[in-house]
Amino acid sequence: MATQKEKVVIIGSGWGGYRLGYGIDHNKYDVTLISPENTSAVTPLLASAACGLFDPRLAHEPLRRRDFHAKYIKALVVDIDFDTKTIICQPAFDELKDERFNVDYDRVILVPGCRSNTFGIPGVTEHAIFVKNVANANAVRSRLNDLLEMASLPGTSEDRQRQLLHVAIVGGGPTGIEMAAELTDLFDGDANVLFPHLKGKASVSVYDVAPQILAPFDQKLAEYASSALKTGRVNIKTNTHILKITQNTIETQEDGATGYGMLIWATGNKSVPLVDKLNLRKTEKGLVRILTDDRLNAFALDGNALRSVFAMGDAGDIEGGTLPTTAEVAIQKADYIIKVLNKNDTSPFEYKQRSLVTYTGRRDGVVQGKREYTGYGAWLSWRSGNFFWTRSWRRKILMCYAWFMDWLDGREIIRN
Ligand SMILES: Cc1cc2nc3c(=O)[nH]c(=O)nc-3n(C[C@H](O)[C@H](O)[C@H](O)COP(=O)(O)OP(=O)(O)OC[C@H]3O[C@@H](n4cnc5c(N)ncnc54)[C@H](O)[C@@H]3O)c2cc1C
């Protein structure tokens, strides 16, 4: 009689979940992935996609692929009973939201990521656009499209045009800075060609409460990035405290109310409801994450590591060895779990620091790693990084085609 395969359930289809779904040996395990999204966002590509460098559909990867062998269930996990090894799920469809079903596991891997934190600032949820997934990138693209057309309506005053074409970005980390860089490239490039009457009227401001942008970078590179952005006429507003967002103004303690046409919220992480709910040990300061040992096994409330429960990605952190919430960490932890499961490897997880790269616009950027450099070389590293982040050959080919067409015929910003 054939022995039953061990059931491994992955919760989440982001960077970590997708990698695990591909990598865990489906001949050895019965692998199931549960997530409300049947695609996996390639987050480093979202800013470029939002600004028309390529079709936003290239910035996510479908789970229903011929070579993706994990079973997929479109649902939200609402709770887990770790004693009976039962996962309680809610179908990810509005019309079925009151239904529940259970999925059993032998081992579960928790990778539900985190969500944007608005820090309770009034008006953010109602008026800001977040940048977490392809739907958000499409929202930015669509709003840009509307703003450019609204500013082009006959009789629109110059003041009104300037307000409509002011993009306020909250968050001076890599996500906010890359968004600012892409927007200035767009405003100084194809938008000028397609909307010559709006030339010089668009502007981008980046707001951050910290004294310096790009916190993960060392001071010299952060200062370089800051001056590169200012050369591209990005208004950098550090040490700035946001009090309130209204439909068309951002109000700060330092400057009062300033008008905007689009506000992008690119800062702050908050735990997802599932992480808040689970009876596991969690970090006590900052972002709430599930605490694990160096084998990535989650700790129960009594302090014992649960060998059947892994936690990783943005939602998990190693006790005493905290790591940032990045795709790089999620990928390395997923590869480690794949090795543990496929090869019974018992060595502890070790993180290998890779280079940090941020684009600052006008074919310039900053790279921090074994070697630190800026300028055109940094832009090339960022562009090639974009290519390597893309996870399938199909999308790599489509991306090269899009870049070629942008070079030949300009970006397509007017079509969603
Ligand atoms: C715009 C942007 C750009 C970025 N650029 C970079 C970069 O250049 N380099 C880098 O290293 N990192 C980058 N990051 C960070 C990186 O994207 C995250 O660290 C990474 O996505 C974390 O992976 P994850 O698998 O833990 O979670 P996520 O990728 O966030 O995936 C979480 C998944 O869990 C699902 N989920 C949530 N709750 C539940 C539930 N209850 N039940 C089932 N499923 C659930 C979600 O729907 C989602 O599919 C960027 C992030 C953003 C937003």
Structural write-up:
- The termini are far apart.
- Strand 24 and strand 25 form a beta hairpin.
- The protein has two domains: 186 residues, FAD/NAD(P)-binding domain, CATH 3.50.50; 144 residues, FAD/NAD(P)-binding domain (3-Layer(bba) Sandwich).
- The protein has an eight-stranded mixed beta sheet with strand order 7-6-5-2-1-8-21-20.
- The longest helix is centred in the middle third of the chain and has 18 residues.
- It is of the alpha/beta class and 416 residues long.
- The protein binds flavin-adenine dinucleotide (FAD).
- The site of flavin-adenine dinucleotide has 32 residues, from helix 1, strand 2, strand 5 and helix 10.
Describe the structure using short key phrases.
416 residues; alpha/beta; FAD/NAD(P)-binding domain; 2 domains; 8-stranded mixed sheet; 5-stranded parallel sheet; 12 helices; 27% strand; globular; binds flavin-adenine dinucleotide; NDH-2; FAD/NAD(P)-binding domain-containing protein; FAD; NAD
- Fraction in beta strands: 25-35%
Principal-axis shape: globular
Instruction: Describe the largest sheet.
Output: 8 strands, mixed
Structural class: alpha/beta
Order of neighbouring strands in the sheet with most strands: 7-6-5-2-1-8-21-20
Within the CATH hierarchy, at the fold level, what is the topology of the largest domain? FAD/NAD(P)-binding domain
**Second CATH tier, the architecture of the largest domain:** 3-Layer(bba) Sandwich
The helix tally amounts to 12
The total of beta strands comes to 25
Count of the separate structural domains: 2
Using only C-alpha atoms, the radius of gyration works out to 22 Å
Mean pLDDT: 95
Distance between the termini: 55 Å
The stretches of 5 or more residues where confidence is low (pLDDT under 50) are none
* Helical fraction: 25-40%
